[in-house]
Amino acid sequence: MYLYLVQHGAAKREEEDPSRPLSPQGLLDITRVASSLSKLDIRVDDIIHSTKLRARQTAEVLYEYLKPMKGISEKDGLSPLENPEIWQEKLTGLSHNLFLVGHLPHLARLSSLLLCGDAEKNIITFQMAGVVCLKRNESGMWSLQWMITPQTVAGETAGACDSL
């Protein structure tokens, strides 16, 4: 099973719009990341997002590029301060490839819990519109496979990799 953890794209400030939709930069970032993912032949069954607008909009962009078989859906337990054990338990019963679109600190705590059994270790530094790929083997152990950020794919579209 592959699990893709996605931090939503950058959102507008609450003072600007209390519903906090994606900002123009946030939309651009997740579109670039989703476009890059579509070239990797990722087979995803489901995209699940939190109840917040910015997460739903991020999931919708991913859906447009990845076309998961089961579509996208909203689920509880993915809000910023939720207990990561909720999704650790839900994942135990799943075997299909899944995108979870959520927030910090929840995603960081969930990834640490899955990778080393301690939600407080802070193993991965997430970035807005970034995707972290984890894989669960047959014995139930999770491992980090790769991470894509808007900065890593910006070079693909803007030619910035040549200057590295």
Structural summary, described in words:
With 164 residues, the chain is of the alpha/beta class. The protein contains 5 helices and 6 strands. It has helices at 24-38, 53-66, 85-92, 106-116, 150-158, and strands spanning 2-7, 46-49, 72-74, 98-102, 131-136, 142-148. A 6-stranded mixed beta sheet has the order 3-2-4-1-5-6, with helices on both faces. Strand 2, helix 2 (53-66) and strand 3 form a beta-alpha-beta unit. Helix 1 (24-38) packs parallel to helix 2 and helix 1 (24-38) crosses helix 5 (150-158). The longest helix is centred in the N-terminal third of the chain and has 15 residues, at 24-38. The N and C termini lie far apart (34 Å). The model is unreliable at 157-164 (pLDDT under 50).
Which descriptors apply to this entry?
164 residues, alpha/beta, 6 strands, 5 helices, six-stranded mixed β-sheet
